[in-house]
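Every protein is a chain of amino acids, and every chain bends into a shape of its own. Below is the pair of lines this work produces for a single protein:
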Amino acid sequence: MHDQFSITLIRPNQSRAVRVSISKFWGYSLGIGALVFSILLIALGIGVVQKWRSVQNYDALKVKYERQEQQVETLSLQLETLQSTVSSIIDTQSNLENMLPNRRQSYSKKKINYRIRAFNQDLQVPEGTPPIQTLEQQLGVLNTHIDRLVQHYVYVNAQFSNYQKRLDQIPSIWPVHGYIKSSFGFRSHPILGKRMFHYGVDIPSWLGTPVRATANGRVIAARYIKGLGLSVILEHGYGYKTIYAHASKLQVRANDRVRKGQVIANVGATGLVTAPSLHYEVWRYRKRIDPKPFLNLELFAAATNVW
């Protein structure tokens, strides 16, 4: 009897009991089997849960990867646009720098192309480089070149500012609106009738029309001069001097400082002249030169023609 396990089953509301006996071997076997089955069932449940979590993580990672892939693609397109923009800026900036006076031979087209080619080469990365690392390297190159462009811009802007200030002291506008009736060079004098050299240009206009200074400067004379009538003589610096003759009225006095465009006199017919007009002369280093190149003179033309 001790080699067996007995189990007594009693049904509810019944007096009769059922006894089941099994040997200890099968009892232990069933117990161990039940335990192993329980362990396997628990392990299977854990495995299923982990698998389910792995699937969820995989789906989340897949969505994240696809989102990052789209972002990388978008950034790549933006990077290409920036690359093209920086190349254009290099080209434009180099051309502007090339226009500066005394710098005209510094940047040939070959050198500009070299700068753009060097920039594009710096953007190249070895094949097989991960997209994120590629973007990081290329963004680093862009930042470096943008810093250089900013430095060049500051330099070029300062140079243009300096030359603009210089242009303000160079005759560069019409003293009165009109046309040239008599040019610089030999002509038959309208009053004396002799063939004489005309050292300026004559611009006819209405009596009293404002005469404006063609550059910043200082009044060195404002008086009547024989032959020229009422005249104003300005000294501008850089060797330049201008004369405004035949005025009806003077608006400045000797030693006054004047600005470009400031009214300094009014058109008249004083001196040897047949009708109201302005006789305008440009001098440089005590030599009278043709005023025509100095009418409507802008910065780049000044850099090419008169500096």
